[in-house]
Amino acid sequence: MTAVSKEMIPAATETDRRFMAAAIRFAMRNAGRTATNPSVATLIVRDDGAGPVVVGRGVTALGGRPHAETVALAEAGDRARGATAYVTLEPCAHHGRTPPCAEALVTAGVARVVSAAADPDPRVDGKGHAILRAAGLSVTPRVMAEEAAETMSGYLNRHRRNRPEVTLKLAVSRDGKIGIRGGGQVKITGPVADAQTHLVRARHDAILVGSGTLLEDDPRLDCRLPGLGDRSPTRIVLDPRLRTEPDRALARTAGDTPTLIATFVDADPARRAALVACGVAFLSCETDPDTGRIALPEMLEDLGAVGMSSILVEGGAETGASFLDSDLVDRLILVEGDTEVGPNGVAAPIVPSIAGQRFRPVRSYRFGPDRWFEYVRRDD
């Protein structure tokens, strides 16, 4: 491909940023529901003299097809000719079950394309823009690229690190505890923060806990926000010795919500068969020679290989510490409640007062008495 100098790239305008911001918000509609593809949005905008108007919009469909450009162009029809397309990810350049989106934009007669995040997929990575420029379209890339990348960070991480992006989320009491060992669930946060947690779940491909949390709390690990019940992610349990019993909530509901147990290959075959009968699937894992536990890097590579892009780790001090110790946490969410658990509590593996030493703070909120902190790894 021929390199394009900065002088040849048309500058973005304030109008471009306004429509791209709208496209980024629209892309969140199907976050966590587009399988191996990211949730991308496209707006087709034309100006016939009375100001710019959106004439077509699209977001990556459930399961990943059709792509956003295809949906937006179909809605715009003939009005796409001479219009500007705002796309949150570089249009694809490879042939699959459908022609490349870059070619579809050319065929539709779009005059200009404004894109946000670059696509690290080697089948795209600049090739989509090259197709557009070769056909005479004006291309302005990397408009609000950082903001767009955050909405599809799991997809980008999977291509960059060959594994899903891992978000560790912990509810931490005022005295730095996450619960009481042997005491069942301890209420640390209030209803507003809890609702936000369910929204975060809906935006991930999977939610993961350790078997200790499963046995102690018997969680459902679903999304219980009104209208978002079908957005529950795949549930993963780290259970090397297969202690999960068929009467647990996750096993009983495995027919409704995909449930995966990561275990060793020699785990109890009778219990495995009973769980399979409930609808549970299994991932056979390697053993970490240093700890005797599941080898997390290899497990994540296996999950990434089947297209999983984002995992929310919610359960257990030991599980959280394992991901932290293995340097596998890409994003961190700490929700600090106003509750004090006391000396019998289980210490959190990380708390807000020290999180900033390892992670870069990106935002914080207050939900009633609770404080919500978000971080990303410092090398991103």
UniProtKB/TrEMBL annotation:
<dbReference type="GO" id="GO:0009231">
    <property type="term" value="P:riboflavin biosynthetic process"/>
</dbReference>
<dbReference type="InterPro" id="IPR016193">
    <property type="entry name" value="Cytidine_deaminase-like"/>
</dbReference>
<dbReference type="GO" id="GO:0008270">
    <property type="term" value="F:zinc ion binding"/>
</dbReference>
<dbReference type="InterPro" id="IPR004794">
    <property type="entry name" value="Eubact_RibD"/>
</dbReference>
<keyword id="KW-0686">Riboflavin biosynthesis</keyword>
<feature type="binding site">
    <location>
        <position position="92"/>
    </location>
    <ligand>
        <name>Zn(2+)</name>
    </ligand>
</feature>
<dbReference type="GO" id="GO:0008835">
    <property type="term" value="F:diaminohydroxyphosphoribosylaminopyrimidine deaminase activity"/>
</dbReference>
<feature type="domain" description="CMP/dCMP-type deaminase">
    <location>
        <begin position="14"/>
        <end position="139"/>
    </location>
</feature>
<feature type="binding site">
    <location>
        <position position="213"/>
    </location>
    <ligand>
        <name>NADP(+)</name>
    </ligand>
</feature>
<comment type="similarity">
    <text>In the N-terminal section; belongs to the cytidine and deoxycytidylate deaminase family.</text>
</comment>
<feature type="binding site">
    <location>
        <position position="224"/>
    </location>
    <ligand>
        <name>substrate</name>
    </ligand>
</feature>
<feature type="binding site">
    <location>
        <begin position="316"/>
        <end position="322"/>
    </location>
    <ligand>
        <name>NADP(+)</name>
    </ligand>
</feature>
<feature type="binding site">
    <location>
        <position position="201"/>
    </location>
    <ligand>
        <name>substrate</name>
    </ligand>
</feature>
<feature type="binding site">
    <location>
        <position position="217"/>
    </location>
    <ligand>
        <name>NADP(+)</name>
    </ligand>
</feature>
<keyword id="KW-0521">NADP</keyword>
<comment type="pathway">
    <text>Cofactor biosynthesis; riboflavin biosynthesis; 5-amino-6-(D-ribitylamino)uracil from GTP: step 2/4.</text>
</comment>
<dbReference type="InterPro" id="IPR024072">
    <property type="entry name" value="DHFR-like_dom_sf"/>
</dbReference>
<dbReference type="GO" id="GO:0008703">
    <property type="term" value="F:5-amino-6-(5-phosphoribosylamino)uracil reductase activity"/>
</dbReference>
<feature type="binding site">
    <location>
        <position position="221"/>
    </location>
    <ligand>
        <name>NADP(+)</name>
    </ligand>
</feature>
<dbReference type="InterPro" id="IPR050765">
    <property type="entry name" value="Riboflavin_Biosynth_HTPR"/>
</dbReference>
<dbReference type="Pfam" id="PF01872">
    <property type="entry name" value="RibD_C"/>
</dbReference>
<feature type="binding site">
    <location>
        <position position="101"/>
    </location>
    <ligand>
        <name>Zn(2+)</name>
    </ligand>
</feature>
<feature type="binding site">
    <location>
        <position position="171"/>
    </location>
    <ligand>
        <name>NADP(+)</name>
    </ligand>
</feature>
<comment type="function">
    <text>Converts 2,5-diamino-6-(ribosylamino)-4(3h)-pyrimidinone 5'-phosphate into 5-amino-6-(ribosylamino)-2,4(1h,3h)-pyrimidinedione 5'-phosphate.</text>
</comment>
<comment type="similarity">
    <text>In the C-terminal section; belongs to the HTP reductase family.</text>
</comment>
<dbReference type="InterPro" id="IPR002125">
    <property type="entry name" value="CMP_dCMP_dom"/>
</dbReference>
<keyword id="KW-0511">Multifunctional enzyme</keyword>
<keyword id="KW-0479">Metal-binding</keyword>
<keyword id="KW-0560">Oxidoreductase</keyword>
<keyword id="KW-0862">Zinc</keyword>
<feature type="active site" description="Proton donor">
    <location>
        <position position="69"/>
    </location>
</feature>
<dbReference type="Pfam" id="PF00383">
    <property type="entry name" value="dCMP_cyt_deam_1"/>
</dbReference>
<feature type="binding site">
    <location>
        <position position="67"/>
    </location>
    <ligand>
        <name>Zn(2+)</name>
    </ligand>
</feature>
<keyword id="KW-0378">Hydrolase</keyword>
<dbReference type="InterPro" id="IPR016192">
    <property type="entry name" value="APOBEC/CMP_deaminase_Zn-bd"/>
</dbReference>
<protein>
    <recommendedName>
        <fullName>Riboflavin biosynthesis protein RibD</fullName>
        <ecNumber>3.5.4.26</ecNumber>
        <ecNumber>1.1.1.193</ecNumber>
    </recommendedName>
</protein>
<dbReference type="InterPro" id="IPR002734">
    <property type="entry name" value="RibDG_C"/>
</dbReference>
<comment type="pathway">
    <text>Cofactor biosynthesis; riboflavin biosynthesis; 5-amino-6-(D-ribitylamino)uracil from GTP: step 3/4.</text>
</comment>
<feature type="binding site">
    <location>
        <position position="314"/>
    </location>
    <ligand>
        <name>substrate</name>
    </ligand>
</feature>
